[in-house]
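Side project, low priority. Logging it here so it doesn't get lost.
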Amino acid sequence: MSKGNLFIVSGPSGTGKGTICNELLKYDDIFLSVSVTTRNKRNDEVDGVTYFYDTVDGFKKRIDNGMMLEWAQYGDNYYGTPKDVVEAKLAAGINVILEIEVQGALKVKAQMPEAVMIFVVPPSMEELYSRLVNRGREEKSEIAKRIAIANGELLKASVYNYIVINDKLEESVNEVRQIIDDRKKQMEFIRGLIDASERLI
């Protein structure tokens, strides 16, 4: 069985990267990694589905034991990607998507250079602002902070392998699906070349 491929999806808040990733779950060969967090579980969230919830001490033990592929601290809370789950899915031939911030993406890429990095951007900053407002989750001051953070994140887009402009959701989902399919074909071809070369030696 061939290994699955690892994909990292990042982008500023409000670009729709989470929606794209959730749409891709309709395919059986794709697994969206669930992060570990120390923040409190909200009423509409499910442990093991939305996040894996842990204490700060438990999270720090995961770090010390090398169980986290990447992690970061935001305010008083920790967030990170469990290493064992990702490795098990890849070994089973399943493609894994990590929907993580730029900081974590670069950490993963350093450990797993074969990961394919995809950066999702809005069609315009005006559209991004509109999406953040329409979500109705933040005050205007918080939205302004998110726009400022987005500007910094956009400067990192050049280190990603692909940039997806999320104007129409269906088209963006199809574009990412095509990236996943192309990567599978490329790696199967490379493995075929390696097998052939070994037979010639």
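Brief comment: The first helix runs from residue 17 to 24.
Revisit when time allows.
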